[in-house]
Structure formats: C-alpha cells, structure tokens
Design brief:
Distance between the termini: 119 Å
Strand content: 25-35%
Largest sheet: 5 strands, antiparallel
Radius of gyration: 42 Å
Strand order of the largest sheet: 2-1-5-4-3
Length: about 375
C-alpha cells in the first residue's frame, strides 16, 4: 500500500484556513481607514481602531453601542442618521458622499463617505457598512481656491469697469478739439493696442492761434498708461499757454512736469506748428521731438516719399533729458505730411510703398495723419 506524502501547509493555505472572524479582527485593528458597521438603529456594532482613536477611545470595542449623537453635534449626527435610514429603506448604497462633521468643541472636518446595506448570509437586511476618508485638507484647499477665484472675478469686474471708464474718458479727451484751419486738412488715427493705452494726440490752444500739435506715447499699456495721458494732456495745454513758436521749449516744459512722476517709465513725443501760409500756398513746419525722430513727407511732383530725420533728442520723464533742437521743413501745396509713431521700420517701409502706389493710382492723400 502506497503512503501519501504529507504536504506541509504554506502561508497561503494557512491564511485561507484562518477563521473569517480572525481576518475581520485583523483588518479592523490594523487598517488606517475608518470602517464601521451599524445596526438598523444606526448604533455602532463594530468599528476600526483608527475610527475609535479618532473619537478618543483607546479600545475600538468601547465605541460599540454608541451612535453619532454621542460623538458629534446634532447637526452632523442628524444628517448621518437620516442618510443611513434612507439607505435601509431603499436598500441603495450612498457612495462618495461628502459629509461635514461638526464636533462639540466647534471643530469642523470633512469626509468622503461610502455607505451600503449589509445583509446576513440568509439575505436578511441587518444594517449598514461604511467607510470614511478624511478630506478636510482637500476641502479647505478647494474653499481657498474658490475664494481666490471669487476675488479674482471681482477684481476683473472692477478692472473692466475701470477700463470702460478710462476708454470713455480717452475717447473724449483724445484728440479733443481738432482745429479747423483754412487750406489745411487734418486727419488722425488713434488706435491703442488695448481698450485704452498711453498714446495721445492733441492740438492745444496757444496765444497766437498757431496750428500746434503734440503726439506722444507713454511707456506701457492699460489703465496706468491711460491715466498718465491725462497728466500729459494738462501739461501740453499749460505749456501751450506760453508757446513761443519753439516746439523744443514746449516739449521741455512738458518734460519738466512729468519727470519724477512716471514710475519706471518714460514718454516719447513729437510737437510742432505750421507757419503762416505764403502767397503760393506753401508753408513751413517747425518740428521738435523727444523720441519720435522720423516723419514722412510726400513730394507729389517727384512722386516720392521723403523720410526726414530730425536732430537728436531724448525721451521725456527721465532726469537730464531734453528735446531735439527745432527743425524747419518746407511744405508745398498738396504735399501731405505723415507723422507716424510706434511704427516698426519694416512697417514704415511698407507705408512708404503704399503711399507711392496710391499716388500712382491717383488717390488723394490725407494731408496730415
């Protein structure tokens, strides 16, 4: 008769032979999760050691027989009780439910809770089984993010309101009054990169009623740059009150007013006036600049566009800077002057080609832009 070899049980077979009760006890003692079983009256029948310690019990069995009303304030206990009774009545699990836990000392915590009906082997409904995971840190982070987003929306609304207000002010202020001068047609285009900006053009009044103009650009964009255009508008108007036919003095007066008042920035500018019309219709244009050195003159007779370089001058708003010395430019009848600011050199070349093209095709040019 053959003898059957004795097989020593390995760890896996011993684990499978262990009682379900012992496996359950090990789970409840060692898991870090808050696991619990409740009867139909929402009384704790079993709880994990982690759950018991959270409520101040050294032994997990000490929590048995208690309800949430013994552990939390009525606010949370009643909500938990109502949820569990609904689970028992509908026999439907409640998954990923976010619960607010309110404690007797005023502390508030948050958990993500999963609760399901618990049945006996006979199929009879006996109670519920649940597991909760603390998400207080996540909830606080979400609330802070929501609060931050709310503040950001409020700030954006305020900023948009400021932009709209500044846009309305600039639309009235720039260019403001455009003088009507016989034999001179004036055209202008003001298009800031955003709703508002630091670009400005105006025609300030002066004692001799010269056709005096100023073009400028505040370094930067948006509402801040737009606010500085209000200051420049005032300074150019004030400077024009004592205009002495020298645009350099005019720009230097403005420069004195803004130096030290523009934080981390500067202003570029171009100013000038048209002289008295001569018998043949020609005029002289006197120009000075502070960072806007180039102007274009279209010579109709020669069908050319002349790029005029003004003398050296420096931007305004920085200590020790000064405008260029004034330069006289002779303008003949029907010869447009183009004053272009914030124009890239490649764009400037393109503009010159377009002017020539329109001239060849007989299109009338804007005398001043």
């Amino acid at each position: 008769m053959k003898k059957t070899a004795k097989i020593e049980p390995d760890g896996n077979s011993l684990l499978l032979r262990a009682s379900a009760k012992r496996l359950f006890e090990s789970l409840m003692e060692q898991t870090a999760d808050r696991i619990y079983i409740k009867d139909k009256k929402s009384r704790f029948i079993a709880a994990s050691q982690a759950l018991a310690q959270m409520h101040g019990f050294e032994n997990r069995h000490d929590i048995e027989g208690k309800t949430d009303f013994d552990l939390f304030t009525d606010e949370h206990a009643q909500q938990a009780f109502d949820d569990e009774q609904e689970i028992l009545q509908t026999e439907t699990a409640l998954l990923n439910n976010v619960e607010k836990e309110t404690w007797a000392d005023g502390t508030v915590t948050w958990v993500s809770s999963n609760k399901a009906p618990l049945y006996l082997s006979s199929g009879k409904l006996a109670g519920i089984i649940g597991i909760s995971r603390d998400i207080t840190a996540e909830k606080i982070a979400q609330e802070k993010l929501a609060e931050s987003e709310h503040r950001l929306r409020e700030q954006n609304a305020i900023m948009r309101s400021d932009y709209e207000s500044a846009e309305k002010v600039q639309s009235v202020m720039i260019p403001g009054r455009v003088p009507q001068i016989k034999n001179i047609d004036i055209a202008h285009l003001w298009k800031p990169m955003t709703m508002v900006g630091g670009d400005i053009i105006n025609f300030p009044r002066n004692p001799d009623n010269r056709l005096l103009f100023f073009m400028g650009d505040v370094c930067g964009h948006g509402v801040t740059a737009a606010f500085y255009t209000v200051l420049i508008k005032y300074l150019t108007a004030h400077s024009a009150e004592v205009y002495n036919d020298n645009p350099r003095d005019f720009l230097n007066f403005v420069n004195e007013g803004i130096t030290g008042r523009i934080n981390r920035g500067f202003v570029t500018g171009l100013a000038g006036h048209f002289g008295t019309r001569q018998k043949n219709g020609d005029r002289t244009l006197i120009l000075s600049h502070a960072g806007h050195r180039q102007v274009l003159v279209y010579r109709k007779k020669e069908n050319t566009v002349e790029l005029i370089e003004l003398p050296n001058g420096t931007v305004m708003g920085l200590p020790g800077t000064t405008a260029s010395r004034a330069k006289a430019i002779d303008l003949q009848t029907r010869r447009p002057l183009l004053c272009i600011h914030r124009w890239h050199r490649r764009s400037l070349q393109s503009k010159r080609r377009r002017v020539r093209h329109e001239a060849r095709n007989g299109r009338r040019q804007k005398p001043f832009e």
